Amino acid sequence: MDRTYPPLKAAFLEPGAGYVTPAHALPARVRMESPAIEVMTDLRLVAPVTIDPHETIDAANTRMIVNRVRLLLVTGVDGRVVGLFTATDFLGEKPMQFIQHHGGTHGEILVKDIMTPQAHLEVLSLADVLAAKVGHVVETLRARGRQHALVVDADEDRRQRVRGIFSVTQIARQLGIQIQTQEIVRTFAEIEGLLSH
């Protein structure tokens, strides 16, 4: 039995070479009556962007910008979800309120200081999502005044785990509504307009 392993042939990267992205691509366009799963970011196919709760909120904002996301899962050393941090947390009133109550500077605020903790995170079940339409998700987000929703299923030990994420921005994009992130309220009005057609 031959146990020699000759080296593989190497070559130089060609000019203009791109890179492979995950095979999962959200459908370009959906309608309100499309299956809800078509607007969910499936974490089996797309890795979530995470952050440690002891990082500064400035570091969290940089991570969101670099990864082109508006939501970070806050995870502990064991990989468990301990909270959620969004662009709204960073850009909204929470940092100023924290400084007013606790002192310090903006640069000293940690993710754990203003994130939404795990105990306050409302989630949707994957089973319900699989039976729902895009319109159901839009109405759920609107009724709760949220820009994001987490979807959960269970692992092999029957422990809950985050399986997917809904984003108002992503849903609007797939519905063909171009928005700026500061226009979430108007976006709901536009999406509701689609509901009435």
Please give a quick description of this structure.
This protein has about 200 residues and is α/β, with parallel strands linked by helices. The protein has helices at about 55-65, 85-90, 95-100, 110-115, 125-130, 135-145, 170-175, 185-195; strands spanning about 40, 50, 70-75, 80-85, 115, 125, 150-155, 160-165.
Name of the CATH class = Alpha Beta
Sequence of strands across the biggest β-sheet: 1-8-7-6
Euclidean distance between termini CA atoms: 71 Å
State mean pLDDT (0 to 100 scale). Answer: 85
Q: Which fold does the CATH topology refer to?
A: CBS-domain
Let me know the largest β-sheet: 4 strands, mixed
Provide the number of structural domains: 1
Q: What is the number of beta strands?
A: 8
- Percent in strands: 15-25%
Query: Into which percent range does the helicity of residues fall?
Result: 25-40%
CATH architecture group name:
Roll
Please identify which CATH superfamily we are dealing with. CBS-domain
Derived structural class: alpha/beta
Radius of gyration using CA atoms only: 20 Å
The geometry reads as globular
Note the total helix count: 8
Quaternary state of this entry equals: single chain
User: Uncertain runs with pLDDT below 50, 5 residues or more?
Assistant: none
- Helix and strand element order: EEHEEHHHEEHHEEHH
